[in-house]
């Protein structure tokens, strides 16, 4: 199983979650919400061979944490993965939208300068803005749009720009989400949970990393495949991204805002 967008460090008992991830043989990308969280989270997951941590700055936190941008740019040089980054155009975050654009443009520029990265990108109520910046920064690497909720024409544009997608149970349980998933190229899809922020069905608690099993079943249905075949597709996709990540040169840089 693969959880390509999870906030393991923000669960009440992250060590217990990691132990279960290990026991199940899962592959997990732990995305961070602030650059300062990267060091502690990296120490937390040390020794877990199938778990990776990416430095990020969540768009919801840009207003108060944008001064951490120099650290984020430095960390981009140390990791083949970057996230969570992106734009959020929902009403409560519109006041920081211009600053969000500046931050994301800076991050994408760093990724391009360093030879490309694999990015987990937030685009809630801001798909067009995110895609504009991706298009402006060709060579940034592989953008993976997390929990994509844009319009069908925005999805078409994302596909044409080479974007990948991470899909979780909270997305596949809705009619709109399933319609978007069915239009995504199966060879550019990975599973995610966005736990602990995303909730299980009937709001019975947070999604756990192993709840990607529900997304696997839903993807198999969308792709008209057996579950085993869908899991094989997902693992093939992950191997391709892992090969890209393994070829990314890491070279920390001193960066100023």
Give a quick rundown of the structure.
The chain is an alpha/beta fold and 257 residues long. It is 44% helix and 15% strand. It is built from 11 helices and 8 strands.
Task: Write a structural description.
The protein is of the alpha/beta class. The chain is 44% helix and 15% strand. The chain has eleven helices and eight strands. The protein starts with a strand and ends in an 11-residue tail after the last helix.
Overall morphology: globular
Number of helices: 11
The average pLDDT score comes to 95
* Strand segment count: 8
Measured distance between first and last alpha carbons: 39 Å
Helix content: 40-55%
How do the strands line up in the largest sheet? 4-5-6-7-8
Which blocks of ≥5 consecutive residues have pLDDT under 50?
Answer: none
Structural class: alpha/beta
Helix and strand element order = EHEHEHHEHEHEHEHHEHH
- Strand content is 15-25%
- Biggest sheet features: 5 strands, parallel
Radius of gyration: 17 Å
Helix-strand blueprint:
Layout lengths: L1 E5 L7 H11 L2 E5 L5 H9 L5 E4 L7 H4 L3 H8 L4 E6 L10 H17 L3 E6 L4 H10 L4 E6 L5 H9 L3 E4 L1 H4 L2 H9 L5 E3 L20 H12 L3 H20 L11
Parallel strand pairs: 1-2, 2-3, 4-5, 5-6, 6-7, 7-8
Helix pairs in contact: 4-5, 5-6, 10-11
């Amino acid at each position: 199983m693969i959880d390509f967008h999870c906030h393991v460090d923000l669960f009440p008992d992250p060590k217990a979650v990691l132990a279960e991830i290990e026991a199940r043989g899962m592959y997990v990308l732990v995305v961070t919400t602030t650059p300062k969280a990267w060091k502690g989270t990296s120490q937390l997951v040390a020794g877990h061979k199938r778990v990776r941590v990416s430095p990020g700055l969540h768009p919801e936190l840009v207003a108060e944490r944008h001064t951490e941008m120099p650290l984020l740019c430095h960390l981009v040089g140390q990791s083949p993965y970057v996230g969570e980054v992106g734009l959020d155009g929902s009403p409560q975050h519109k006041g920081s939208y211009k600053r969000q654009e500046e931050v994301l443009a800076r991050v994408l520029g760093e990724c391009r300068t360093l030879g490309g990265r694999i990015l987990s990108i937030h685009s809630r109520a801001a798909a067009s803005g995110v895609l504009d910046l991706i298009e402006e920064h060709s060579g940034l690497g592989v953008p993976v749009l997390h929990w994509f909720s844009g319009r069908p024409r925005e999805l078409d544009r994302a596909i044409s720009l080479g974007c990948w997608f991470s899909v979780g149970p909270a997305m596949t349980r809705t009619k709109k989400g399933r319609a978007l998933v069915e239009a995504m190229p199966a060879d550019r899809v990975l599973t995610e949970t966005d736990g602990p922020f995303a909730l299980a069905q009937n709001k019975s608690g947070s999604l756990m990393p192993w709840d990607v099993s529900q997304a696997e079943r839903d993807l198999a249905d969308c792709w008209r495949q057996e579950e085993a075949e869908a899991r094989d597709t997902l693992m093939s996709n992950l191997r391709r991204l892992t090969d890209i990540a393994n070829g990314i040169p890491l070279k920390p840089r001193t960066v100023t805002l």
